[in-house]
Amino acid sequence: MIKKHFIAAVAAVMSLSAFATSTAWAQNAPADQQLVKRGEYLAKAGDCVACHTAKGGKDFAGGLPIATPIGMVYSSNITPDKDNGIGNYSEDDFDKALRHGIRKDGASLYPAMPYPSYAKVKPADVKALYAYFMNGVKAEPTPNKGVDIVWPLSMRWPLSIWRKVFAPNVAVDGADDNSALIRGQYLVEGLGHCGACHTPRGVGMQEKALTDDSTQFLSGGVIDGFLANNLRGDARDGLGSWSEGDIVAFLKTGRNSHSAAFGGMADVVANSTQHMTDEDLSAIAKYLKSLKPVKDGVAPLAYDDKTHQALRKGSDQSPGAMGFLNNCAACHRSSGKGWTETFPQLSQSATVNADNPVSLIKIVLEGAEMPWTQKGPTQFAMPAFHDRLTDQEVAEIVTFIRSSWGNNAGAVSASDVAKVRKELPKKTVGADSGTVAKK
C-alpha cells in the first residue's frame, strides 16, 4: 500500500513538473512567436522582398540587379543560410548592416541599400526583424553575385566616407508617441524608405533631404526610368488634391479616383502596403498630407470641357488629337476622365502634369499593369505602343494630353521620346528610335 501511494505521489509530482514545464514553454513561445510575427509585418512594411528577390528566384535569396550611375550591383541573400546568407549574423551584425550600412566583414554597403532611411528604425523593431529573418524565413543556398562595377569605382573604402557625410545617426528606443502623425512619419521616413525613390539625388547620389526639414524631401525623383511622383502638397503634380482616404485607397488597392500604381510603385503596393493595417496606412496618409508644397500658392488645375467637345464634334483634326482618338480614347475617354478605378483619368493627373514627362512617355511606349491586390483583385493593363507609334507620334499624343482638359504642362519633343525608347529592353525595341520598331 505504501509503495502504491509512493508511486502515485511520484507520478503526480512528475505530472506537475511536466505541466509547469509546458506552461513555461507556452508562456515563452508565444512571446517569441509574436516577435517573429511582428518582424514579418515590419519586413513587409519595409518591402524587403522586392529588392532581395531576383525575378524567378526564391524569396529573400538576393540576386536582383540594381542599376547605379557607376554600374550594376546585385541584392544580397538575406535568408538564414549560413554559407550564402545571414545565418552567421548576430543581432548586432544585422543591426550594423541594416542601419549603419556595414557588412559583417566590416566593408561598407553600397547605398542602393537604403540604410540612411533605415537608420530611423528603432532598436526594438530591429530586434523583431532579426527574429523574423532568423526564424521565419527559409534558408536558401543561393550564392551572392559580385558587382559589375569597374575598378577603381568598385573599391568600397570610399563608401565609409560617404556614410560619414550623408548617413544620419541611428535612432534609439524611447518613449513612444502614439499619435498618427508621428507614426506616419516614422513609417515614411524609416522602414517605408519612401525618400529613396521620391526624393531627388545630389551629386554624391545622396538623397537631397531625409526629413521634412527641406521641401526637397519627397518632391519627386527619377528611378528605373520613371518619375517617382512628388508626394508633397502641390496641387498640380503632388498630393494636394488627394484626401487622406484617397491615399489609403491607393496604398491598399493600387488605384483610386485620381490614379493607378505603375512601375516600381505597383510592386510596392503588391508586396508591401496592401498588407499593412488600416491604422498604419491612415497614419502614412496623415503625415503625407501634412507636407507643405514645393511651390506654395499655385492654384489647382480646373477641368476644361473644350477638348472633350472638340473631340466629340471632330473639330480638332490635329495629329495629337487624332492619335489620341485612335489609340487612347477607348479607355481614357474623350473627356479625359477615364473610368474610376479601372482606367486612370488623364485630366488633372499629377503624372500627366509633372514637369518631367518621362513617366507618361514610358507608359505609352512600354505599357503598364495595375498590381493585383486583395482589396482590388481585378487587374487591368495598358498595352505597349512602342512598336506601333513613332517617336514623333508619341510626342504629339503626349503633348496633346498634357495640354488638354485643363492640363497645363510643357510640350514633349520626338527627341524626348527617343531618349526614353533607347532605354527600353533591346529585344522589344528596334535600334532606330525615330521609326516604328520591327518585331
UniProtKB/TrEMBL annotation:
Annotated signal sequence is 1-26
UniProt KW keywords? Cell membrane, Electron transport, Heme, Iron, Membrane, Metal-binding, Repeat, Signal, Transport
Q: Where in the cell is it found?
A: Cell membrane
Fetch the InterPro entries from UniProt: Cyt_c-like_dom, Cyt_c-like_dom_sf, Cyt_C_IC, Cytochrome_c-type_DH, Membr-bd_ADH_cyt_c
| Cytochrome c domain boundaries | 34-137, 179-292, 315-405
Q: What is its main location?
A: membrane
- PROSITE patterns with a match to the protein in the record: CYTC (PS51007)
- What this protein is called in its record is Cytochrome c
Which species expresses this protein natively? Herbaspirillum robiniae
